[in-house]
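2024-03-11 09:14:02 DEBUG pipeline.ingest accepted 1 chain
2024-03-11 09:14:02 DEBUG pipeline.ingest length=412
2024-03-11 09:14:03 DEBUG pipeline.predict start
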Amino acid sequence: MNNIYPRYSLQSITQALLDTPVVFVAGPRQSGKTTLVKQLITGHPWKYITLDDQTQLTLAKADPVGFIKNLSEKHIAIDEIQRLPELLLTIKQVVDENRLPGRFLLTGSSNALVLPQVADSLAGRIESILLNPLSECEIKNVQPCFLSQLLSGAAPESKEKRIKNYLINRIVTGCFPEPLQRTTQQRTATWYKQYINSLVQKDIQDILHVNHSKKMLDLLKLTAFYSGKLVNLTELANKLDLDRLTIKKYLGLLENLFLLKHLPAWHSNEYKRLVKTPKLHLIDTGLMCAIRNINNVSLLAQPNEFGHLLESFVYNELQKQACWINEDLQFYYYRDKDKVEVDCIIENASGDYFAIEIKASATLTSSDFVGLNRFKAIANKQFKLGILLYDGDHTTAFGDRLFAVPIGALWS
């Protein structure tokens, strides 16, 4: 029997349904949206419809207005709304006639709200909540407190020590609910490969209507080798025999499918010697490892690759936890022309900065803090805290507002 993991976005969804007519739960396919919605509406007077059901999809396509207006229930859940975004315009009409809170609960594996006509028509009527693959906190069933501690200016502590083997296993397995139930790495990799095939069939072809779906799939696979690295459109274009503009468009489409994220470079008007090219991060390291045929044994033998994958793993964990913080946070990375870098910069609503560097090793030297010190000097008074996440035993001060913190603190 599958485990039911706690989903910490549930509270946000429940609260939104109390005062918002349309709530949109968005996230990558197989991240748990349907399970969460069914858990929420079970035992309550909701009508549930999935547009993955071809019969329902055909009926809705034939008469979008009648399909919605003929539903007698006050509360309606529609799964995979991106398969027919025209329904959103009808939902807008229905909501304008009766602005009952929690009228519609929608899910989508593609960000239909980026369509201008949809975003404009539903403005003020909809709240979008992102459901990522599972966070480490949800997998271990512990309350997330890392970011809240960080934003309060405190260096987090960890009870978990020297967890390299654990991290390697988690990186290879990834954070989608289904692979976590599989008993071998081979079965886990098989799931991810089937997942990629379903993306081509259900999303890339049917929803995005991309002319070169094979090229789109090739790009997705290629980004598994570039995750955590600077975006080089020319290099990607040459590898796939496409032009830069097409590559840029396809990367945007993959981002709308919640499969990758662009991490912008931090910049300052006062400091000109900064790299401005964004980085790419795929949303799950298990997906990356399956594409690249990486398993525990091969990853253990490749410390450089372990470092790159760990950076993506930590970045994704921070992004997941940021969804549960009641504050608008912006994420960046720092890199200057001297190639001095900080893996992650978090800016809060007040314009304060919190810097995070990620190191796969258990040993530390002062040179590991070069990037944090450089950014601290540039950010000046806006710099609040810098931490180096490492595979060590203790949280240790390394100067004014600088700390080494065990990686396990992310979920301790």
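2024-03-11 09:14:41 DEBUG pipeline.report The first strand starts at residue 22 and ends at 26.
2024-03-11 09:14:41 DEBUG pipeline.predict end
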